Amino acid sequence: MHTDTTAPELVDLPARVVLTVDGAGAPEAPAFTAAVRALFAVRAALGAREDVPLEGSYSQDGDPLRFDLGKPDGWHWRLLVPAPPHATAAAAETAGGRFGAPVHLRSPRAQRVARLLHRGPYADEGPSLAALYSFVERSGLVPAGPHTEVYLTDPSTTPPAQLRTLLQVPVSRWV
């Protein structure tokens, strides 16, 4: 199945405060579903009301620069959503305990990423990821961590062909 991709670009993301859950395995596994539910429940319990996209960073078998789309059982992931203002680490962890997942408050630093918009099913991200990593190399940069997916559409209400996912990878200059 053919999917459209937008042209890759470099973007500077600001530092921010996020709620996270770490785990491993396929997105169809109960742990992944529980993590997603816990993140949004904790966010709401801490006072957030607006909708935000879910983000997930993925690596393979503990290697932050490897990812095999065909072997999701070996994925290591960090799911995250923006934290509401004034959230504290203690409140996030306490609320996470109530919702069945270890939710943590983290503060990722500002970073430069290469990104592009993938349109279509998640299973068809291979060519989009290849285009993104090719752009990184052509730009004289190297990946500086696992790729992240920002889910702009809800897979429970959006047909697979209409899904939109921002794919991004942190980058640095050759050393």
UniProtKB/TrEMBL annotation:
Instruction: Enumerate the InterPro entries for this protein.
Output: GyrI-like, Reg_factor_effector_dom_sf
Question: Which top-level group of life is the source organism from?
Answer: Bacteria
Q: Which residues form the GyrI-like small molecule binding domain?
A: 98-171
Protein's name in the database? GyrI-like small molecule binding domain-containing protein
What is the taxonomic lineage of the source species? Bacteria, Bacillati, Actinomycetota, Actinomycetes, Pseudonocardiales
